[in-house]
Each structure stands twice: as C-alpha cells, then as structure tokens.
C-alpha cells in the first residue's frame, strides 16, 4: 500500500484523524494528572506527570474512542476521559517496565525514562498510584457519559481484568520467565495475547460497553482487538529487528534480552505476512458484527504500517 493510499485507508485521512483524536486524549490525560497530582508528594506527582504526558502513539485511547463512536455513542470529552483511563494503565506499565530491575531502559519515546528523570522510588510509587486512579477515571467517565451503573462497573472491571494477572501483568511475568528460552508459536501467542493483546482488546470492548453496544457488536470489537493485538506485537518484533533507536525513540532490546520473538520464529517476511493476515481477520470481525467503521479499518492497517 502506498503512503497516500494508506493515509486515506478506509475512506478517512488517517493522519488528520489521529491528530484530532490525540488532541482529545492529551486534554483528557492532562485532566487526569491534574486531579491526581495534589494527592501525591511532589516528587511522585512529577514522576506521574512525566510517565503519563510524555507522548506515545496513544493507540489504546484512540481505539476506545473509535469503538465508542462505531457502536453509536456520541463522542464528547468524557469519552476521551474513558480512553485516558486505559492509557494510565499503559503508562504505568511502561514506567515500571523501564526500571533497572526490569528492562533497565534509559530512553522511551525519544525522551529519558521516568526513573532516569525522577528516580526509582518516585517512579515505582507513581506507577502504583496510577492503577487505582485509572479505575476511578473509568468509573467517573462512564458516569459522565450517562452509562447505566452496571455498565460503568463492567467497563472498570474489564480494564482491571485486562491489566491484571490474567492479562498484562500475567503476560509480563511469562515474558520475564521466557528470557533466554525458545518459545513455540502457541506459547508466544498466549504470552502476547496477555501482555499486549488484553489491554488493546479491552480498549475496544470498554468503548463498546460505554456506548451501550449490542452483545454482537461488543463481541466483534473484542475479536477485532485480539487480532490487531497480535498484529501489533508481530510488528513490534519486526520494528525491533529492523529500525534504529532514533526511529523507535527507544533502544531495540529483544536481541539483548535474548527474547523469543516472531521474527526469530518465522523470519522477517513470514512475520510481516502473518501480521497482515491478522489485519484481515480484524476487518472480517468488524464485518461479521455489522460494524461499518472506517476509522477502525484504517487503524487496523496503521498497526502494521507504523514505523515506531
Ligand atoms: C513485574 C510481572 C510484573 C508486572 C508489572 C511492568 C508491567 C507490570 C507490565 C509491562 C507490560 C508491558 C511492558 C507491555 C508492553 C506493551 C507494549 C507493546 C508497549 C509499547 O506500546 P506502544 O507501542 O507504546 O503503544 P507507545 O509509546 O506508543 O505508547
């Protein structure tokens, strides 16, 4: 796909769409951090601000808002607050993942990592503070959107389940256990389905729940999310193996940490083909759910065509 056709994929100008959506997300993150800061010691507040407001693609909140829209919700500031709740979990996971006791990374999104800028103690504490703050942000956003109480609770529960031992934390644990070992395809899919896929899929499901989607539409965006989650991780491995630290905004780390990757398992060409097949599966899931959602179609392609 050419640059131009990929940018207007699915009939939308993806660059313009992302710019607009990210602006809404940044405002919502600013609201969330401003609410949390006064409750934290200054050095912890500074670390939380660094971790949450230091850029990134903002893919998870953008997907949440796109799913809300696709399922018939009227997008407004509280929709971005809901997306921001998910990004707060993502931000804490990166802050902790970069710590010396984990990946020991000094660069993320082209900036110094939070512990380099604000110290390890403050980073650990800020990360922990972000977890309940995210759950509260989701509950408040659902209330502001006029969701039924049960839907708000289900959205917050979906977020915490995806973040927890059965999702991101469990996947991270498997990843740490797997350093230096050769994983087969099924184990690698299971690991990344938890570590990366669970939060990505939850982003969409939470958007659908808040919009009051039918169970068919909710299932469809969940299936779309799991497929793009896998496509995202395969692409991450391809980028880690092929792109410079300057392009990525972080140091490639898979080889240094002796991690099992899709590139090691399949080779570059087959890994790229498999990522593309997952995009097709994601688009088919939308079709099955009767969702005509050009932004979601364009975002699925973006996941495999991104450069960082
Ligand atoms: C110690 C077991 C244990 C858990 C602690 C640290 C942690 C919890 C979880 C880490 C999970 C993790 C690092 C997941 C990686 C997800 C991922 C692919 C991140 C990169 O996402 P992008 O590309 O990043 O969306 P940007 O920078 O664009 O936001």
Please provide a written account of the structure.
The model is unreliable at 1-8 (pLDDT under 50). Strands 1-2 form a two-stranded antiparallel sheet. Helix 4 runs antiparallel to helix 5 and helix 14 packs antiparallel against helix 15. A hairpin with a 2-residue loop joins strand 1 and strand 2. Helix content is 73%, strand content 1%. It contains 15 helices and 2 strands. The protein is an all-alpha fold and 308 residues long. Bound molecules: geranylgeranyl diphosphate. Geranylgeranyl diphosphate is lined by residues 56-57, 59, 93, 96-97, 109, 168-169, 172-173, 195-196, 236.
Q: Tell me roughly what share of residues is in helical segments.
A: over 70%
The helix/strand order is HHHHHEEHHHHHHHHHH
Number of helices: 15
Radius of gyration: 18 Å
Bound molecule kinds, no repeats: geranylgeranyl diphosphate
Query: In what order do the strands lie side by side in the largest sheet?
Result: 1-2
Strand fraction band?
under 5%
**Sheet with the most strands?**
2 strands, antiparallel
Structural class: mainly alpha
Low-confidence stretches: 1-8
> Mean of residue pLDDT?
93
Shape: globular
Give the distance, in angstroms, between the N- and C-terminal Cα atoms.
Answer: 18 Å
How many distinct beta strands? 2
